[in-house]
Amino acid sequence: MNPPVRAKITAVGTYVPPRLLTNADLEKLVETSNDWILTRTGISERHMVEPGKATSDMAVEAARNCLEHRGIDATTIEALLVATVTPDMLFPSTACLVQHKLGVPQCWGFDVLAACSGFLYALAAGASLISAGTHRRVLVIGADTMTSIIDYTDRATCILFGDGAGAVLLEPAEPGEEAGLLDFHHQIEGVGGSSLYMPAGGSHRPASHETVDKREHFVHQEGQAVFKYAVLKMYEICQTVLSRNGFTADDVDCFIPHQANLRIIQSTGERLGLDPKRVIVNIGKYGNTTAATIPLAMKDAHEQGLLHPGALVLLAAVGAGYTCGAQLLRWAI
Ligand code: UT7
Question: For a pocket test of ligand 1, which of 39, 113, 224, 234 has the largest count of ligand atoms closer than 8 A to its C-beta?
Fold first, then answer.
């Protein structure tokens, strides 16, 4: 029997809208301070889409950037996966909208709804299509317009989130090539559902005057509960995926964590025993862009020279659901 084909990332593309929302801007909206936000989260500014633009618009920009880096045409894409919690609308899927806008003919595709773990879940799903041998070029996109579901009167959540998109291209590794996704460890734990959620707009509480008046179409979060879970889980899932593949922290060339809070990232890095120089932190300039944080951080890791062919890369995220995931891959480009 032939060994399964490994999926490797052959290009990364990103997009953030130019409009900025700084801590100084937020000081004018709610009772907060630049000092509080920086100390508790590490965030200085975030990006916001222009009115009238949506998640599919950012996703298309990131996808174009990714295809440009690879030097290929959108017509060669065979599957397109979009991770998002802020689809343009409930249906059709954002994947369908992106496929049409990007000019990809008749490919397969779907949305993945796993909040901050969404990009990792979509990446694993895309890699499985490659490994199964059914698809050879899979575009995986993480994109969120978080500013569309944020209550700018709630100081505990409005300081955290921003908009952005990132895309990677997955292709089969050559036979014998070391590059590609080595392993993933994902878990969902619905017990955490009420700690981070959007109460209305689905079949449980369809939109009504009451749901609007009660501000139920916005993100609701019990920050401390999520924080405690994230700190515990980020470490646990990373440790599991490292040890079951025979690696230690010293083997990791680059750790690319979901960017939710600088303190969560630092705590995870320290507990794993990672060299801080190998831990990617860009939350300061983007905030939490949900499904887009990891591809946006991949771009920064590349610019910092931490990603080279053969580099061992650890990815990890925790998010609403709860959802969590850690992945190990050998960088290809
Ligand atoms: O990616 C999705 C997963 N999400 C996360 O990982 C987020 C996890 N949670 C967090 O990052 C943190 O819990 C927050 C940044 C959201 C909050 O930080 P915290 O250190 O947990 O603060 P806290 O909720 O315990 O609040 C401490 C105080 C409270 O005041 P009192 O009760 O002590 O008087 C809050 O009302 O800080 C107050 N506070 C603020 N003060 C100034 C809350 N938000 C603000 C604010 N500015 N923006």
Answer: 224
